[in-house]
Specification:
The complex is a heterodimer of chains A (217) and B (106).
Chain A (H helix, E strand, L loop, with lengths): L1 H23 L3 H21 L3 H25 L13 H21 L7 H15 L4 H6 L13 H5 L4 H22 L6 H6 L1 H17 L1
Helix pairs in contact in A: 1-2, 2-3
Chain B lengths: L3 H21 L3 H25 L8 H33 L13
Classes of the chains: A mainly alpha (217), B mainly alpha (106).
């Protein structure tokens, strides 16, 4: 598993380095670009963890959509020149972050994390490797690992539209509500009465806002 | 597969970096970006734990991935809404520095 280790540490250098850049660099636009690097590296981890679908989703939604939204916000709020100043809470923030890191590292190192006996873990790992490469069934049988994969039973979509269909629908409604809320927040205010009389442009603008309002209702 | 503890340490590091960004920076946009970092750290943790627990009882790695999918969806909704609020804030107060937004403070 040397190859996986190398990939893991390369990704770690990219992810942690870029994440530090995001919070420390002064230029907001560069911070947003570094954030894209973190997202792509996290997608790499997902591939490493046999979560191919999530890796694709990560690149599409995070590196594609969310980063574009954030870059739009950076551009539209013209604070780019002003940069990214720290506030007065610098020292307490560092202290609190260090404290939390120490606590998390202690817990992670102290806990017994191996859930399976060593032999069983090897066979599960072999089945996982077989899913993405072409190990023959005979090899699996010899290792005593055939038919042991829990992944053979149900897939991601079976769970999503089976047992978890209610959260799935709730999340859909949440997305719709967020969409309508964002529209209602950024639409222009209805123009006051005298301004409407002064120009056709503002009148059409307020009519557009009214239409958006009725749509949101 | 790489040991679970390394993924957990990595996840802790990313989460702490995000926490520092939330606490110590002024720009609301950067605070949002830091929150995204923290959510990504949690996702790594979930998926790593799910992948390493595969074969343990009736546990499959898709149970963890499912929660990660929900987190990603909620994060997308959150970012869209939060950026709308930031733009609105900028239009009203012409700043996005959170320590200058004190409308609700007395």
């Amino acid at each position: 598993m040397l190859f996986q280790d190398v990939v893991f540490w390369l990704l770690t250098v990219v992810a942690v380095g870029s994440a530090l850049g995001v919070v420390l660099i002064r230029d907001l636009f560069r911070a947003a670009l570094l954030l894209v690097a973190v997202f792509v590296a996290v997608g790499g981890y997902f591939v490493l963890l046999n979560a191919e679908f999530l890796a694709v989703v990560q690149v599409l939604i995070y590196a594609g959509a969310i980063s574009v939204l954030i870059i739009f916000a950076v551009m539209l709020t013209r604070d780019v020149q002003q940069g990214n100043p720290p506030n007065r809470l610098q020292i307490p923030a560092v202290a609190l972050a260090a404290l939390l890191l120490a606590a998390l590292v202690t817990v992670a190192v102290d806990t017994q994390w191996s859930f399976l006996p060593e032999g069983e873990r090897q066979s599960v790992e072999l089945v996982q490797t077989a899913a993405v490469s072409d190990i023959s069934p005979e090899t699996l049988e010899q290792a005593g690992a055939a038919g042991e994969s829990a992944a053979q039973g149900v897939g991601l979509a079976d769970l999503l539209i089976g047992r978890f269909v209610l959260p799935f629908e709730a999340v859909s409604v949440l997305l719709l509500a967020a969409l309508i809320g964002a529209l209602a927040l950024v639409r222009p205010r209805p123009a006051p009465q005298d301004a409407r009389a002064s120009g056709a442009e503002s009148a059409s603008e307020s009519a557009g806002a009214g239409a958006a309002g009725s749509e949101a209702d | 597969m790489v040991d679970l503890v390394w993924f957990q340490l990595l996840s802790a590091a990313l989460f702490v970096i995000g926490l520092y960004g939330v606490l110590a920076r002024r720009s609301a946009v950067l605070i949002l970006m830091s929150i995204e970092l923290m959510l990504n750290a949690v996702n790594i943790n979930l998926i790593a734990a799910a992948a390493h627990m595969e074969g343990f009882g009736s546990f499959s790695r898709f149970d963890g991935q499912l929660i990660a999918i929900f987190i990603i969806t909620v994060a997308a909704a959150e970012v869209g809404l939060a950026l709308a609020i930031v733009l609105r804030m900028y239009r009203n107060r012409s700043t996005v520095n959170v320590d200058e937004i004190d409308l609700m403070k007395w």
